[in-house]
Here is the input.
Amino acid sequence: MTQGLGLFDAQYRLLLVNERFLEIFDLSEEAFSKRLSAQELDDIIGDRIATTLGTAGRAASGELFGRHVGRLFTQAEPVSGEETFGDRVVAFTHVVTGAGGWVTTVEDVTERRAQEARLAYLSRFDALTGLPNRTQFNDRIALDLAWVADNGIKLAAVGLDLNKFKEINDQRGHAAGDAVLVAIGRRLEGATQDGEFVGRVGGDEYCALKKFRTQTELAEFLARIERCFRDPIRVEENDISVAVSIGVAIYPDDATDAEQLVNNADLAKYRAKRSVTQNVCFYEATMDEASRERRAMARDLWDALDRNEFHLTYQVQKNIRSRDTIGYEALIRWTHPTRGAVPPDAFIPIAEECGAILPIGRWVLKRACADAAAWADSLRVAVNLSPVQIANDDIVKLVHETLLETGLSPQRLELEITESTIIGDKAHALHVLRQLKALGITVALDDFGTGYSSLDTLNSFPFDKIKIDRSFLMEAEAKDDSRAIVKAVVALGRSLDVPVLAEGVETVGQLNILEEEGCEEAQGFLFGRPARLIEGEIATPKAAGGN
Ligand code: C2E
Ligand code: CA
Ligand code: CA
Here is the structure.
């Protein structure tokens, strides 16, 4: 029996008790030989508590039996409740008996209450970081929304997602990953002020809420959050740098309710994740439509390989002085069953985001090498590599196997990579590129002049070619500064002893500029549009007539 029972007579004296009753209050049976009164009982219990907790404990402890009885008889209804005696919590009920006395049932509920408190805590806090969890976030956003609506101010929902957290886990172990999550949690907690909220809502996802009046207030808050990711985190002698993607949506500008606000902050966060340059993105209404569209396209991309919807086109690359053909760049084309021709600029970024670029990239490489191996002249084939392939695929093994399978000699394969490949995880990228070059293939730096255009990139790796982005050529005839960039890149290439290829040459005027500046190679509609193979050979530009 878990309940203690005590029967009191009309003189408020204890007539009868069970074992459990004595246990709960740590009383000995002899104590009842003289029929204690309710008042005496309270005194004994009080003394007992005082010896373990000191006199303060006695004052704090209730007078369970004496104090309640008056109420019991005036209201003529059972009295029940809970009292804390020192470190114990006791639930009790007093019920009047017919003879003018009463029965008290008591139960030690200390464990149960502690358990409940633990559960309540766990259900509202994240066990690892101690931050509020999603449940609490949901409650809080509802309260905050109601509050800002009443007060005519705004609420920003902020979603945070660590970049490449999986790599930290994979490379340094889960303990290090946990340490990073805890450290970030502490920093975020330390960075927030009264009325602000941060929580952890998923593996490497955190969230924050900020009520604000002015844009400056919000910007100041976001700057504080961003600062949490500035310094590396020290874990067992290692400094681990953690980057973050942050998405922000604002009530009432971007949403009418909590769910929409959180969804839209997520959409903004995904955009921040995709962007190489922006780590904080604000929700824009066009994202909704765009993200639906992207999801649909991502689904179709996964099926496109099986359905044979891709093919390659080849665009000729020329030596400017001799006008000799030096090779062809392979450019992928997608014919979607309902959308028709989808340009690579529209689907490559989506394929990169959803991972479909890995099988697609493998297919492109194999197809291009197999095609080139069958060409009559031993011309070079250039294949574009996505940064995602370098970061996530075993590209060295893939290239090696492909060369063996197709019999293409390594000198005939050139891989085109963009600067963003190196910007991400530089050490890894350079390691992969060196291994690739060791296979005997060449590596070109694509789209130079856009994005970072850092000398550092050029110095960090011995590229075999620099490709000037076509945007400069388009403007080179009309704009002096575009021409100056072309000139500078050509000079840079010469000083590094790396040939420069100009992309997007459409007119004779542009070609003249390149000749004057001493640019070695060119590619563009002037020499030929990307064209399909006809019977294994590149169709002539005229015959192909376009993309
Ligand atoms: P990119 O690597 O810079 O490829 C050159 C782009 O310029 C091609 O666009 C080509 O058709 C276009 N182009 C060539 N000459 C001219 C010209 O004279 N004038 C103009 N206006 N454009 C010219 P495309 O085929 O639409 O490809 C766009 C981008 O998609 C490529 O830019 C490349 O970044 C990516 N891409 C294409 N195929 C692949 C692939 O197999 N794998 C990967 N990862 N990316 C690819
Ligand atoms: Ca290219
Ligand atoms: Ca390019």
